[in-house]
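Morning run. Coffee first, then this:
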Amino acid sequence: MKKFTVILLACWTALRLGAAESADSGWLTDLSKAQAKAKAEKKLVLVDFNGSDWCPPCMALKRDVFSSPTFTAFARTNLVLVDVDFPRRKELPEAQAKANNELSEKYHIEVFPTVIVFDSAGKQVLREEGLSSTDAKVYVAKLEKLKGK
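And here it is:
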């Protein structure tokens, strides 16, 4: 019984840590909330349309760019991040899946990853389809140029 309790406690702790990490990642899933936050904070909104668990270029972008210290430092002060995921191996809550599908239709997403950047007023200032670069410094330099537009 003690082993079971210890295992159960360990699993619960791991799940809680994973949930906290996810919440602390800075990625939102609601574009309208992100746009309101960006307007209030005068930031850009970066929307990543991806297939997180099946799309190799999407995984490379996340691993090499979005998870890099260079990008995260830039994002912390300049971006509101939105993850619009279309996973195949995990199931999203029904409302989230519906919202993601509506965004995909609205922005005519045909390729993963597609990254769209909006200014704080909601105007689209960049759209990239496919993987343009896995160099975080190059990626951040491109985003840096958008700040003044």
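The chain has one domain: 26-146. Good start to the day.
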